[in-house]
Amino acid sequence: MRYLLPVLLWMLIIFISSSIPAEDFPQVQFWGWAKLIHLIYYGVLCFLVQRAVTHQVRFPLLARHSYIVGIIFAVLYGASDEFHQLSTPGRHGQITDVLIDAAGASLFILGYWVYRSFRPGKTEGAEGG
Fold it and tell me: What is the extent of the structural domain holding 98?
C-alpha cells in the first residue's frame, strides 16, 4: 500500500483536474501551458506506477518490465481521462493530448533510467528495470 497510495492519489488529482469545466479552469497566458501540464501529470503518474510495480512481489514479470508497465498504464489512463473530458462542460478529448501524455511518461522514464544508470555508487546489476 505504501507505493500504491501515491498512484491512487495522483490519479485522483488528474481526475479532479479533468472534471473542472472549461469556464472555471484558470486561464494562463502562456502558450503551451496545458500541454506542459499533460507532460508533468502523466510523467509523474508513469514514475509512480513504475515505482509501485517495481516494489510489488506478487507479479515478478511485471516488476521486471516496470518501465514499460508505467508507460502503458499512463497512456491508458490518459486515454480514459480524455474520454472523461467529453462529459465535462466546455472540455473535449483529443488524441493529441494522449500522445502528449505518452511523451511525458516516456520522458520521465527516460530521465529516471538515465539517473539510475549513471548515478555515483551504483553497483552493476543491483536493480532491474
Answer: 4-16+34-118
101 burial type by CB count under 10 A (0-12 exposed, 13-18 middle, 19+ buried): buried
Q: Is residue 28 part of a domain?
A: no
Query: Are the CB atoms for 107 and 43 separated by under 8 Å?
Result: yes
- 10: in domain: yes
Q: Output the pTM of the full model.
A: 0.76
Going through 45-119 in order, the beta strands assigned E by DSSP cover none
| CA-closest candidate to residue 14, choices 68, 82, 103 | 82
Distance in angstroms (rounded) separating the CA atoms of residues 61 and 43 = 22
Give the residue from 73, 75, 66 showing the smallest Cα distance to 7.
Answer: 73
Contact yes or no for 99/35 (Cβ under 8 A): no
Q: What share of the chain is helix, strand, coil (3-state, %, to 5)?
A: 70, 0, 30
Q: How many domains does the chain have?
A: 1
pLDDT digits (tens, 9 = 90+) for 91-118: 777 788 888 889 999 999 889 888 888 8
